[in-house]
Write a structure and sequence with these properties.
Elements (H helix, E strand, L loop, with lengths): L3 E8 L1 H7 L6 E5 L15 E5 L3 E8 L7 E9 L2 E2 L8 E7 L6 E6 L5 E11 L2 E4 L4 E7 L11
Parallel strand pairs: 1-4, 3-11
Antiparallel strand pairs: 1-2, 4-8, 5-6, 5-9, 7-8, 9-10, 9-11
Length: 152
Amino acid sequence: MTPQLNIIGLVDSAAVLAERTFDGHLFIAGNANSEFCTNEGTDSPCTGVFTGQVLNWKTYPINLQTDAFVSGIRWYKNHRLITNAKDEPVSQSKLYGSPDTTYWAAIMNATEPGYYQYQLQVNMVGKIMWMTSFAQIYVIGKNVTSINTGDE
């Protein structure tokens, strides 16, 4: 198991601001080398994670004129918004870092295998927008040996 999983988003922030949508302008991928990871490099990937794993979300602007960073995450189960923080699959979910190295991090607490959907809130020079599509996290569980994490 990789102790930390980095989920990176490349954002064409100039296009997002001009068109007022992330559709076709946000590309997300994680560093988990897993059979549970699909649609990497799109705005709706699925990333396989283990219970207890630290997740880091960071965005990088494709065009360097407009910075972009994750400023929030909304969690869903079965595409229903989780409104009670105690029901979220993660803990210690918050913004970390300085203006040059800002990222969102959390610890995966969910123990039952299954899917959670999420949407990122991205701040681009003070303009805050939520992505419209859903990315997914697949919670693998604690003790799965059939996964290749790249650590062998």
